[in-house]
Amino acid sequence: MKEETQRVPQATSKRLPLYYRFIQKLANEGKERISSQELSEAMKIDSATIRRDFSYFGALGKKGYGYDVRRLLEFFRKTLDQDEAVNLALVGVGSLGNAFMKYNFEKNHNTRIVVAFDPNAAEEGTMSNGIPIFRPELLEEKLPDFGVQMAVLTVPARAAQDMTDRLAALGVKGILNFAPVRLNVPEGVRVHSIDLSIEMQALIYAIRNDEKNSQTSI
């Protein structure tokens, strides 16, 4: 994502791809303009939150008119660097890693997995879904050949910090971490962690809380 003139909160940054995906859908449907209230109702995001998010990037809309869909689409495409491909490394080709390789981000986003590392790979390397897979001990030798900027980490918790240290030392600037452990990284490296068990527990809590509120209102 390109650097902005003012610091954008992380919560806003995480919503930008959601806005882009939805605006892209509107453009494909031929819609020319939309208000923050219409966006709010369609995306289930408070309209005040949408206006605040958009305000970090200047005057994206006009009072009484709303937002021009094509202008928003072009803005988010440039802001999220959708025209510039980002090469990813996948570290850990287990069940989750295999799913990523079969999906590959390039089909729907501007990112693509170009190389993977897994301890079960053949010593000379192997190919899967058009992606070369090497053993982790070859990381320092092979990774520089692929112009990798980011990595997806799907390794056991015990191996996550060591792999993170090695990736950071090789110049990787962003890590999407699926290992259930908090990672320490040097300044200039960003980590976004996704703990599937926590997400599931949060979903269960939300469902049960909705059920309780529904029973209370009867």
Which terms summarize this structure?
single chain, about 220 residues, alpha/beta, Arc Repressor Mutant, subunit A, Rossmann fold, 2 domains, three-stranded antiparallel β-sheet, 8 helices, disordered N terminus
Nearest-integer average pLDDT: 85
Q: Quick one: how many beta strands?
A: 10
CATH class category of the largest domain: Alpha Beta
Q: Roughly what percent helix?
A: 40-55%
Task: Give the topology string: H per helix, E per strand.
Answer: HEHHEEHEHEEEHEHEEH
Calculate Rg over CA atoms: 21 Å
**Alpha carbon gap, first and last residue:** 47 Å
- From the 3D structure, determine the CATH topology of the largest domain: Rossmann fold
Q: In the residues, how many domains can be counted? A: 2
The proportion of residues in beta strands is: 15-25%
Largest sheet descriptor? 7 strands, mixed
Which structural category do the helix and sheet elements fall into? alpha/beta
Please state the overall shape, judged from the principal axes of the Cα atoms.
Answer: globular
Q: What is the CATH superfamily label of the largest domain?
A: NAD(P)-binding Rossmann-like Domain
- In what order do the strands lie side by side in the largest sheet? 6-7-5-4-8-9-10
InterPro entries: CoA-bd, NAD(P)-bd_dom_sf, Rex_bacilli-type, Rex_DNA-bd_C_dom, Tscrpt_rep_Rex, WH-like_DNA-bd_sf, WH_DNA-bd_sf
Keywords: Cytoplasm, DNA-binding, NAD, Repressor, Transcription, Transcription regulation
GO molecular function, one term: DNA-binding transcription factor activity
Pfam family, one: Put_DNA-bind_N
